[in-house]
Each structure stands twice: as C-alpha cells, then as structure tokens.
C-alpha cells in the first residue's frame, strides 16, 4: 500500500509517516521502480501500537525502545509495565502540582473579592497578583 493510502487507513498524515520512518519507529518501506514508498499492510498494527502508546503519554524514544525489544524477538511486557508505572507516577505528581496551583489561584480569587480595584496603586500593576 502506498503512503497516502496508509495515512488514510490509519488516520495519520504522510508527513507523520515519513517522520516515524526517519525516527526509526517504522521500518524503511519497499520502493517501487519510480521511488514510491510501498508499505506492507501489517505496518498498520505497528502504527496502531504507536498511537496507543502516545495516548498513554509515552515519548517517541520510549516507544522506539519498546519496538526495538519486540523487533529483537522478545516480548516487551515487563519493560512496558515499568514505563507505565513511571508514567503513572508522573501523572500523580502533575495532579498534585495542579491541585496546589488550583488552591493558589482560588486563594488569589478570594483576595480579589475583598480588594477595591480603584485602590490599586499603578506601580503594583494589579494587586490581585
């Protein structure tokens, strides 16, 4: 299948497919005598894996690691389990940071309710912040 057909089938773009190829996520495709890329239909499964991995928040470097393990003939399950554990810990940290940020913004908003805007000195720009 040609690159445009693969892009349409997988809901991606030809530019993305070329990028994935250059980044080592997709194996180099066969070429026609005219130089057009032709992909094996099985590459759609690989693209599906890449897209699912990105939705889980894995980086392209991490995805490349997992693919390299699989391409080496080994099951990457324990490596993926480790990556997902790290990702979950990162998400927990981000949620904690967002909760703290929300509390800060809520406190600023509460303070803004008690300050008269016309009493704000020009040098402070805005006393709410």
TrEMBL record:
Q: Which residues form the HTH merR-type domain?
A: 1-69
Q: Which Gene3D superfamilies match?
A: 1.10.1660.10
Q: What is this protein called?
A: DNA-binding transcriptional MerR regulator
Q: Which InterPro entries match?
A: DNA-bd_dom_put_sf, MerR-type_HTH_dom, MerR_fam
Keywords assigned: DNA-binding, Transcription, Transcription regulation
Q: Which residues form a coiled coil?
A: none
Q: Name one Pfam family in it.
A: MerR_1
CDD domains according to UniProt: HTH_HMRTR
Q: Could you give a GO molecular-function term held by this entry? A: DNA binding
Cite the source lineage: Bacteria, Bacillati, Actinomycetota, Actinomycetes, Geodermatophilales
Source species of the chain: Blastococcus colisei
Q: Which SMART domains match?
A: HTH_MERR
């Amino acid at each position: 299948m040609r690159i445009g057909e693969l892009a349409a089938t997988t809901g991606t773009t030809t530019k993305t497919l070329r990028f994935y190829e250059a980044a080592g996520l997709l194996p180099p495709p066969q070429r026609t005598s005219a130089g057009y890329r032709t992909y094996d239909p099985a590459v759609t499964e690989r693209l599906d894996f890449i897209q699912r991995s990105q939705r889980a928040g894995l980086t392209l470097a991490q995805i490349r690691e997992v693919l390299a393990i699989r391409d080496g003939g080994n099951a990457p399950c324990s490596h993926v389990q480790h990556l997902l554990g790290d990702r979950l810990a990162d998400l927990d940290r981000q949620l904690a940071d967002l909760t703290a940020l929300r509390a800060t913004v809520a406190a600023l908003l509460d303070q803004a309710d008690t300050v008269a805007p016309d009493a704000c000195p020009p040098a402070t720009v805005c006393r709410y912040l």
